[in-house]
Write a structure and sequence with these properties.
This protein is α+β, with helices and mostly antiparallel strands and 153 residues long. Helix content is 24%, strand content 34%. The chain has helices at residues 55-67, 88-91, 132-135, 138-152, and strands spanning 10-18, 24-29, 39-40, 43-45, 71-74, 80-86, 97-110, 119-125.
Length: 153
Amino acid sequence: MKKVERDFYQVSLKLILNNDKGETLLMKALNTGTYAGFYDFPGGRINVGEFEVPLPDIVRREVREEIGDVEYTLNPHPAAVARHLIPASISGLKSDIRVVYLLYEGAYSTGEVRMNHEHTGFRWLDLNKIDLEKYLTSGNLEGARMYVGRKKG
């Protein structure tokens, strides 16, 4: 029997943050990297030392780092999953980085979005009314499609 080689993935926790108008917060990506020219959901990868930290707490940490102290209610169960590839040419490593996205849903309450250095702007857009491919790509697009499809079904 042929031995199966297992792949290694990093995990990124993203937030689909919706306001009371049915719009979702999208962060404009930097002009470099895999999302150049597209938007991103707030969130990020799990840090070393966070293995035993509850995933919703990591989502909250990542979101706070990227958009500040915005208040929201977080559904503690992932709303969608997706995959993203960071090519070796831009990963800083000698190989591609494969990332699994767990996308959580949140309901915005209050607070001003304050971007950090990882994004250049933001917009609130209705995922059901936009051409997703115009704004999102790769893992974000896959996750948004699953999320929108789940909401419709």
